[in-house]
Amino acid sequence: MILVTGGAGYIGSHTVLVLLEAGYDVVVFDNLSNGSEEALTRVEHLAGKKAHFEHGDIRDRERLDEVLSIYPVTAAIHFAGLKAVGESMKKPLEYFDNNVSGSVHLLQALRQAGVFNIVFSSSATVYGDPGTPVFNENMPTGTPSNTYGYTKLVVEELLKKTQAADPRWRVALLRYFNPVGAHHSGTIGEDPAGIPNNLLPFIAQVAVGKRDQLSIFGGDYPTEDGTCLRDYIHVMDLAEGHVSALKAIERFDHGGVGIWNLGGGKGHSVLEMVEAFEQASGRSVPYKIVARREGDLAQFWADPGKAKRELDWEVKRSLHDMMADTWRWQSQNPNGYRE
Length: 339
Ligand code: NAD
Ligand code: UDP
Description:
It is a single chain. This protein is 41% helix and 18% strand. With 339 residues, the protein is an alpha/beta fold. The protein has a 7-stranded parallel sheet, with helices on both faces. A two-stranded parallel sheet has the order 6-15. It is globular. Bound molecules: nicotinamide-adenine-dinucleotide (NAD) and uridine-5'-diphosphate. Uridine-5'-diphosphate (UDP) binds at residues 178, 197-199, 202, 214-217, 228, 230, 270, 293, 296.
């Protein structure tokens, strides 16, 4: 059975679906600070199979021990944490507490339960600003431009050092590029609370009429159209990458740490995203170009070669799929999981 921390959230819920469909049993552990049980109900409906749900906080060691004593867990996929970049600068203690202390407690509880396989949600932000747009896993990590990113780097180090001290651990560090999209059915997707921080949910809310216009942060970058380029990855491709990584670490003979980029290997500009969304939705997305946002790099994308070679995984879904699936989710659920 797989323990999925944060499994009621955006990426977690899509991954739970892929796990169930691949035949795994799943127990989700989530404090619902940014997740929804309704997402899991819909996942179960899509999969035709039940996922166990346990309400709890990864900082609560007793609760973790309790859950691990009930279920025969063999591996964990660890999504739980806080992820808002701007908020992380204002609330560093909350971010270190949830993301770093929470991970320490989780690792202690897993060790006690004899569970040594873990897949961790990291981020391309750990590369910092390496001075080249193509990020590959052989590059040293850098200095993330925000506190959120820093917590990801610290947890990567925590996992590496834990594994170095005890070779029973098998660890996957998955460096996500920009996850977007929703399940093709349009029944599960990203449900941000309040004003979305990320580009695609913002565009989708403008298209559905919830917000007037998109602000594009910077039109004077040294890129073809002056807006930033990012490597957007469909959340279902990302979810499948977790199952591939889980299988890969299970094949490690003597423990180890695998680091893999999960991205498509191609950059798309903000303006390209707006156009692609308009095409897929048939709605217009009014925008204005405003000042640059602090901490944004002009352009970067993944070198996806290592994941292809070692995980036999690569993205399958197109930019159009990302947009069409986002639109299906947004138009069918204008208020997300809240009715
Ligand atoms: P999300 O907020 O939708 O999901 C996180 C889930 O964790 C939520 O359901 C929340 O309720 C739960 N949670 C938070 N703190 C918890 C705690 N202390 N104990 C138990 N549960 C807790 O976010 P997401 O977009 O699905 O991201 C999942 C993971 O991937 C996060 O670790 C995030 O940092 C990482 N990540 C996300 C992105 C992205 O752009 N979405 C990019 C790179 C990495
Ligand atoms: N962006 C934007 N307007 C928004 C949100 C984002 O122009 O309202 C841009 C942002 O500057 C970046 C890209 O869209 O170039 C992706 O930003 P997002 O916050 O989604 O992801 P990030 O790359 O920062 O993790």
